[in-house]
Specification:
The protein has 112 residues and is of the alpha+beta class. It is 36% helix and 32% strand.
C-alpha cells in the first residue's frame, strides 16, 4: 500500500547553558497543535531489530513536583489503556490499573 499522507510531530527544546530544558513546545499540525507549550515530554520508540525501547524523558526545570506526580500517574493510566488496546489482555490491564490506583493513593493524588 502506498503512503498517502505524511504527518509530522515536532518537539522544540530550549536549553540553558548547562543543557537543562527551560522551555518545551510541540507542533502537530494534523492534530491542530501549533507551538503548544509543555512542561514535560516522555517519548518511547520501539526498535524491533534490537528488541529494545529507545526513550527521551525531558521536563523543564520549573515544573512543579505536584504536576510531575500527576503527569506520571496519568501516563501510567494511559499506558495501561494502550496496553489493553494492543493486547486485549484484561487480566494484566486490571493489574496495571490496580497499580495506578495504588500509585495515586500513595502520592495522595485526588481522583479527577
Amino acid at each position: 500500500m502506498a503512503v498517502v499522507h505524511k504527518s509530522e510531530i515536532n518537539l522544540n527544546v530550549e536549553l540553558d547553558e548547562n543543557k537543562v530544558p527551560e522551555k518545551l513546545s510541540w507542533t502537530a499540525k494534523d492534530g491542530g497543535v501549533e507551538n503548544e507549550a509543555a512542561k514535560a515530554v516522555l517519548l518511547s520508540v520501539w526498535n524491533s531489530e534490537q528488541q529494545e525501547t529507545l526513550k527521551i524523558d525531558l521536563w523543564t526545570k520549573d515544573m512543579p513536583m505536584d504536576e510531575m506526580k500527576k503527569f506520571m500517574h496519568q501516563t501510567l493510566v494511559s499506558l495501561s489503556d494502550t496496553f489493553y488496546k494492543a493486547t486485549q489482555d484484561e487480566k494484566m490491564t486490571a493489574t496495571m490499573k490496580d497499580f495506578c490506583d495504588y500509585f495515586a493513593e500513595k502520592l495522595e493524588l485526588k481522583k479527577e
